[in-house]
């Protein structure tokens, strides 16, 4: 049986980010279904409980709980503080695993030259921040050149549509995989919530050609009056800091409902519940994805579609990838967003069934991960 390591950095550090955990889970579960023995190796930086909201014990317990919920409790290792401690698989077992592994799928994690993971013969970098990654790589050592395969969820990389230089890296576009067994369709016209789960500012920031590439705040502000213009309440679970209290007030005054993501989507199960009991997704994209025309599509949107929930999302230039006219809609202006919300309401069940069909056709982990394995020669 082939062995694949899903490599990450500091995923275990933030257990309350259920969506981020799901990105990695989709790979773990999807590979297993394809008959591949998959292992999750997370590199966790030092934790100081005086500065961090959690202790190391709490972080390990939360990760182990997730591993048991999804039945990979014997297939993970958390390497703490450059090898000071190992959780899950012990150090000797990890070393044996690395010696026998066929492939490393490194999900946007820096890979130091002295990392034992460098021994894996096939090393693939999975870019989940197209546009930002390419700008950062020109300014910092992103360790991308320590890999020999390169995948990105930016559908426009390698084409004239994308505005950032690739600097010789042969990026291969893929779509975010969804393990459909864990994301059944839940079509119910009684569901009311239209919104999303996201990060108000985010950690993605870059400057290229004197232009600023940033997070979602700017895009939300451009659409500030959408709830009143559309006559629809939009409820979003936003990671928005207390220092942004003026922004929270501005959103609420304009008809947005801001929910606490740690309550509504603070672990993989509640994250899934939030989506499956929603009516549809409405979401803006980070301005960096929009400005670079990266063709980025969200793993979260893929989960909405799999759940039979229509998605209305801001264009990043990937419309050409999805010729379907129902289920997944894009907007560039407030007027187009209003029209999209009306279109979904006017033919809701048709959009729901179309959403699930799009997930099955484009995002099915069997298809996405099968193509990855084929490309790397496994």
Describe it.
The chain has 378 residues and is α/β, with parallel strands linked by helices. Helices cover 36% and strands 19% of the residues. It contains 14 helices and 17 strands. Helix 1 crosses helix 9 (268-276), helix 1 (18-33) packs across helix 14 (365-375) and helix 11 packs across helix 13 (348-363). The model has no long low-confidence stretch (mean pLDDT 95).
Topology:
Blueprint (H helix, E strand, L loop, with lengths): L2 E7 L8 H16 L3 E8 L11 H14 L6 E5 L4 E4 L2 H10 L2 E5 L15 E5 L4 H8 L9 E4 L19 E2 L20 E2 L1 E3 L6 E3 L2 E3 L3 H6 L3 H5 L3 E6 L5 H9 L2 E4 L1 H4 L3 H9 L3 E4 L3 H6 L6 H8 L4 E4 L13 E4 L2 H13 L1 H16 L1 H11 L3
Parallel strand pairs: 1-2, 1-5, 2-3, 5-6, 6-7, 7-8, 9-15, 10-13, 13-14, 15-16, 16-17
Antiparallel strand pairs: 3-4, 11-12
Helix pairs in contact: 1-9, 1-14, 11-13
Helices, by number, come to: 14
Number of strands: 17
Residue share in helix: 25-40%
Mean pLDDT: 95
Helix and strand composition category: alpha/beta
Instruction: Give the class-level CATH name of the largest domain.
Output: Alpha Beta
What is the architecture of the largest domain at the second tier of CATH?
3-Layer(aba) Sandwich
Whole-number total of structural domains: 2
Spatial order of the strands forming the largest sheet: 4-3-2-1-5-6-7-8
Described by strand count, sense and barrel closure, the largest sheet is: 8 strands, mixed
Q: What's the end-to-end separation, in Å?
A: 11 Å
Please compute the radius of gyration using only Cα atoms. Answer: 20 Å
Proportion of residues in extended strands: 15-25%
The rough form would be described as: globular
Named CATH topology of the largest domain: Rossmann fold
Low-confidence stretches: none
């Amino acid at each position: 049986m082939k062995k694949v390591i899903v490599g990450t950095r500091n995923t275990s550090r933030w257990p309350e980010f259920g969506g981020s955990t799901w990105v990695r889970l989709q790979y773990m579960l999807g590979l297993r279904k394809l008959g591949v023995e998959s292992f999750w190796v997370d590199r966790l930086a030092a934790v100081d409980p005086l500065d961090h909201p959690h202790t190391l014990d709490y972080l390990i317990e939360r990760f182990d709980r997730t591993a048991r919920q999804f039945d990979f409790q014997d297939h993970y290792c958390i390497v703490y503080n450059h090898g000071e401690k190992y959780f899950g698989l012990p150090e000797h077992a990890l070393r044996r695993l690395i010696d026998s592994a066929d492939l490393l799928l490194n999900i946007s994690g820096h890979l130091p030259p002295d990392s034992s993971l460098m021994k894996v013969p096939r090393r693939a970098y999975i870019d989940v921040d197209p546009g930002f990654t390419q700008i950062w790589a020109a300014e910092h050592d992103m360790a991308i050149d320590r890999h020999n395969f390169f995948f990105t969820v930016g559908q426009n990389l390698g084409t004239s549509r994308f505005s950032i230089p690739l600097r010789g890296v042969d990026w291969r576009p893929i779509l975010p995989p969804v393990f459909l067994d864990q994301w059944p369709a839940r079509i119910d016209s009684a569901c009311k919530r239209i919104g999303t789960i996201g990060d108000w500012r985010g950690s993605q920031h870059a400057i290229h050609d004197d232009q600023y590439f940033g997070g979602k705040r700017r895009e939300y502000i451009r659409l500030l009056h959408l709830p009143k213009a559309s006559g629809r309440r939009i409820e979003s679970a936003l990671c928005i800091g207390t220092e942004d209290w003026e922004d929270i007030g501005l959103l609420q005054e304009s008809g947005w409902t801001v929910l606490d993501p740690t309550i509504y989507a603070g672990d993989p199960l509640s994250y899934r519940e939030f989506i499956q009991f929603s009516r549809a997704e409405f979401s803006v994209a980070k301005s960096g994805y929009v400005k670079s025309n990266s063709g980025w599509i969200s793993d979260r949107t893929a989960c909405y579609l799999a759940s039979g929930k229509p998605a209305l999302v801001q264009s990043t230039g990937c419309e050409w990838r999805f010729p379907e006219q129902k289920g997944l809609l894009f907007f560039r202006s407030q007027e187009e967003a209003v029209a999209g919300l009306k279109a979904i309401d006017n033919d809701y069940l048709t959009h729901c069934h179309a959403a699930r069909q799009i997930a099955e056709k484009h995002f099915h982990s069997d298809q996405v991960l099968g193509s990855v394995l084929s490309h790397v020669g496994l």
